[in-house]
Write a structure and sequence with these properties.
Strand order of the largest sheet: 1-2-5-6-9
Largest sheet: 5 strands, antiparallel
Radius of gyration: 19 Å
Strand content: over 45%
Shape: elongated
Number of helices: 0
Distance between the termini: 20 Å
Order of helices and strands: EEEEEEEEE
Number of strands: 9
Structural class: mainly beta
Helix content: under 10%
C-alpha cells in the first residue's frame, strides 16, 4: 500500500493486494462438503483506505478491498469444460486500531 499524508496525522492509502484461499466449505443437508476445488487459490484486488495517526503513537484506519480477478474455476468433466460466470470477491471493509512503537 502506498500512503500519502494529506495533512498532519491524516493519510490516504492505495495499492494492490493478493489473497490466498486457505479453506472453503459448504453445507449440503447435514453434511459439510469441501468446495475448495471450485475456486481459484489466489485472488488479486485493490485496496483503498484512510488513516489517522495520533500524537501519542496510536492510530486508527479503515480500508476497502475489492477483488479484481475471477475467483471461481470453470467446471470440467472429461473433455467437456463449461465456462462459469465471472465471480469476484465482494468488497471487504477493514477497520483497525494500533500502536506504533
Amino acid at each position: 500500500m502506498a500512503k500519502y499524508y494529506i495533512v498532519d496525522g491524516f493519510s490516504a492509502e492505495l495499492g494492490p493486494y493478493v489473497g490466498f484461499l486457505m479453506k472453503s466449505e459448504g453445507k449440503v443437508g447435514d453434511n459439510t462438503v469441501d468446495s475448495k476445488d471450485f475456486y481459484k487459490s489466489v485472488d488479486f484486488g485493490l485496496g483503498v483506505g484512510l488513516a489517522y495517526d495520533m500524537p501519542m503513537g496510536f492510530f486508527v484506519g479503515a480500508r476497502l478491498n475489492v477483488g479484481l480477478s475471477k475467483a471461481n474455476e470453470d467446471l470440467s468433466a472429461g473433455n467437456l469444460t463449461v465456462e462459469t460466470d465471472d465471480i469476484k470477491n465482494m468488497p471487504v471493509i477493514q477497520v483497525g486500531v494500533g500502536y506504533k512503537f
